[in-house]
Amino acid sequence: MDVEFVFDVPCVWSYFAYARFQRAAARIRAEGGQVAVRFRPFQLDPRATADGEPKIDVLRRAFGVEADDAVAGMESKAASEGLTFRHRHAVWSDTLPAHRLIAVAAGQGRGEAMVERLFRAHHTDELNIADPVTLRRLADEAGVASRDGGDEDVRAELARVRAEGVRGVPVFRLAGRTLHGALSEETLYQAMSATVAA
């Protein structure tokens, strides 16, 4: 079974969705099913820079005085699902380099591990995922041989995703179905089970 996952790394809902998907996919695989994931890039903020800025500042511009409460709420929700969110010192930066690394990792059969590590790097470790030194270290941790180049391929894929009408993430596509949002583990499991059974 082939599954497309359209996402951006700093998106909290993308991280929730991916963590739930991983658990659902593990159940399918334990039952003897095969799940292949194609990761497709999306950028919440194409104008973000490589140096980045504090994520909390970005959130305060977007949500005003409610930003701090929203962050606290997300951190609590993440904890309830076994994830650790730390956004007080997270860095909001260009995600094209991270998506490029994901493409490289996918070509080496390490896409799933690389995506999980990048989510954790941003949301838990508060690292700048546009920094080349950081990305090389994360690649090493995920068992990926990093390489230079590939920006134009990622930009072309970003354009294709936009041309398909994607305006927000996360999005899953499987067996001709498109599923939007941070769906529950059970919803994802049932969707994949139905695809396996079809």
Total count of domains: 1
The low-confidence parts are: none
CATH hierarchy: architecture: 3-Layer(aba) Sandwich
CATH T-level fold name:
Glutaredoxin
**What structural class is derived from the secondary structure elements?**
alpha+beta
Q: Tell me the β content.
A: 5-15%
CATH superfamily: Glutaredoxin
Average pLDDT works out at 95
CATH class: Alpha Beta
> Spatial order of the strands in the main sheet?
2-1-5-6
| Secondary-structure element pattern, one letter each | EHEEHHEHHHHEEH
Number of helices: 8
Largest sheet: 4 strands, mixed
Computed over alpha carbons, the radius of gyration is 16 Å
What is the molecular shape?
globular
Helix content: 40-55%
GO molecular function: isomerase activity; oxidoreductase activity
Domain DSBA-like thioredoxin: 3-192
Pfam families: DSBA (PF01323)
Keywords: Isomerase
Give a brief rundown of this model:
Keywords: Isomerase. Helices cover 52% and strands 12% of the residues. The protein is α+β, with helices and mostly antiparallel strands and 198 residues long.
